[in-house]
Amino acid sequence: MRVGVLTGGRDCPGLNAVVRAVVRKGVQEYGYDFVGFVDGWRGPLEGDTVPLDIPAVRGTLPRGGTLLGTSRTHPLEHPDGVRRIRDNLAKLEVEALITIGGRDTLGTAAVLAQDHGLPCVAVPKTIDNDLHGTDRTVGFDTAVGVATAAIDRLHTTAESHKRVLVVEVMGGETGWIAVHSGLAGGANAILIPEQPFDVDQVCAWVTSRFRASYAPIVVVADGAVPRDGRPVLTPVAGPASGVRLSGVGEWLAREIEHRTGKEARTTVLGHVQRGGSPSPFDRWLATRFGLHAVDAVHDGDFGTMVALRGTDIVRVPITAAAAGPKTVDPALYDEVSVFFG
To answer: How far apart are CA 316 and CA 142, in angstroms?
Structure first.
């Protein structure tokens, strides 16, 4: 059997570890051949591939990014996208496709598998941890570690200057990174998209913290929204023109400074949360996902996604991952709010 592999959507640490595990087990135990599709769904859409064998994945376990490249190509937006993918898979004699991605990538895989009968198996990855069906996604633990380390460093400079430091983390429509890193880093307020925030309440927490002779750290997810407001967006110029989630940290810092009279500065962590070497947990999770994904191919269990449940790797329908974002439970947010202020 020849198996195709692609990594789609935004990059994250641990992608190469998935590919490595897929190839190692697929070659050694099942005798499969592999082909890597370049730049996510653009690869099968245009028939763009690279050789993928054991020498190609050797030494890639600790490497960030993706050796296959990635893009946010949406083949279903092309009128003949499904036909082109089907034709290219047939031409390349690819009998199964392992798709490693987030909601958009796996949403496409779900449609191709369920509506068009393409033999897809999915692996969940995203630093946002917003996929249903799995407790954790590849890349999330590393992003939380990066954000927590940054918060730890910012505490000392905040104390030295007696200023408010606002830390903007990624997360899109969800606040998983903010909640986990904010709690682990000892933040004095954590603001997430699932819970619209009151600026006056945030300022009250800040003031309370200063009364206790501590400089506050406010962690805010890039998709967090002020009460009775709307998401703060930043214009993007160039080929990817439009707007993107970013700017709420700077906006909030200005509001805090204006309302409290305390100096406030912003640190936007941005893409450092995506880059660099994956954490030990992400290497472990990515490797197990890869091993189980190639087992699903061997079993002919297409239309499924490998997922983490507790400490077990299970299979769930790919459609589970495409069913809207997995958001932070209000009970979890209430649980950590005891540390605010």
So the answer is: 24
Catalytic residue from among 11, 39, 128, 130: 128
Q: Which of 124, 84, 102, 149 is nearest to 279 (CA)?
A: 149
Spell out the alpha helix ranges (H) of 125-185.
140-161, 176-184
Nearest to 337 by CA among 231, 178, 199, 227: 178
Cα end-to-end span (Å), the chain: 59
Main-chain phi, psi angles of 14, to 5 degrees: 110, -10
Neighbouring-strand partners of residue 123: 100
CB 118 within 8 A of CB 97: yes
> What is the C-alpha to C-alpha distance for residues 122 and 124, in angstroms, rounded to an integer?
7
Q: How far is CA 60 from the centre of its chain?
A: 20
Conformational region of residue 225, where left means phi above 0, alpha means psi within -120 to 50, and beta covers everything else = beta
CA 304 to chain centre: 20
Grade residue 222 by pLDDT with cuts at 50, 70 and 90.
Answer: very high
Please write the tens of the pLDDT for every residue from 118-155. 999 999 999 999 999 999 999 999 999 999 999 999 99
pTM for the model stands at: 0.94
Cα gap 105→62, rounded to integer Å: 23
Which pLDDT tens digit goes with each residue over 227-262? 987 777 677 656 655 666 678 999 999 999 999 999
Give whole-number Cα distances, 335 to 180, 204, 340, in Å.
12, 20, 11
* CA 239 – CA 211 distance, rounded (Å): 48
Nearest-angstrom CA–CA distance, 320 and 142: 24
Burial of 231 (0-12, 13-18, 19+ CB in 10 A): middle
Q: Clarify whether 198 is annotated catalytic.
A: no
Distance, in Å, from the CA atom of 237 to the CA atom of 43, rounded to the nearest integer, reads 26
